[in-house]
Amino acid sequence: MSKKTTYTKVLLERRKRRIRKRIEGTPERPRLRVTRSAKHIYAQIIDDTAGATLAATSSVALKIAGGNIEAAKQVGKSLAEHAKAQNIEQVAFDRGGCLYHGRVKALAEAARETGLQF
After folding, report:
1. Residue 21 burial by Cβ neighbours in a 10 Å radius (0-12, 13-18, 19+)
2. 3-state class percentages of the chain: helix first, strand second, coil last, to nearest 5
3. Is residue 97 classed exposed, middle or buried when 0-12, 13-18 and 19+ CB atoms within 10 A define those classes?
4. In Å, what is the CA distance from 106 to each residue of 15, 94, 96, 103?
5. Max alpha carbon distance in the chain (Å)?
């Protein structure tokens, strides 16, 4: 691993911690966590007080190529449908240190269009 790669990971971890100081998932308003990699995008709804994942989906689970905006939209729509099935209407959005741009934004907007509020 190069010095630059290590430093990039350190900065990402700092951003994650800074976001998590303010965002906490509760039973009434669980946390919607987004993780993206170069090839896939993952999303899960987490209740931090119970330490449980309430719903999760990803481009891997949906068997689609996840490195694009269309895949992110499908993942967001699927996650919102899973949440509605469990009577979850409001979530706190945790972008995981990534910018609210591109695939992260597409996932969030698709979830909002399907009925999640955040």
Report:
1. exposed
2. 40, 20, 35
3. middle
4. 20, 14, 15, 5
5. 46
| CATH number of residue 107's parent domain | 3.30.420.100
For residue 51, the one-letter residue type is G
Among 101, 93, 117, smallest CA distance to 19 is for 93
Residue 30: domain span = 3-114
Split into its structural domains, the chain has a count of 1
* 87-112 tens-digit pLDDT: 999 999 999 999 999 999 999 999 99
Its pTM surpasses 0.70? yes
Q: How far apart are CA 42 and CA 33, in angstroms?
A: 8
Q: How far is CA 99 from the centre of its chain?
A: 12
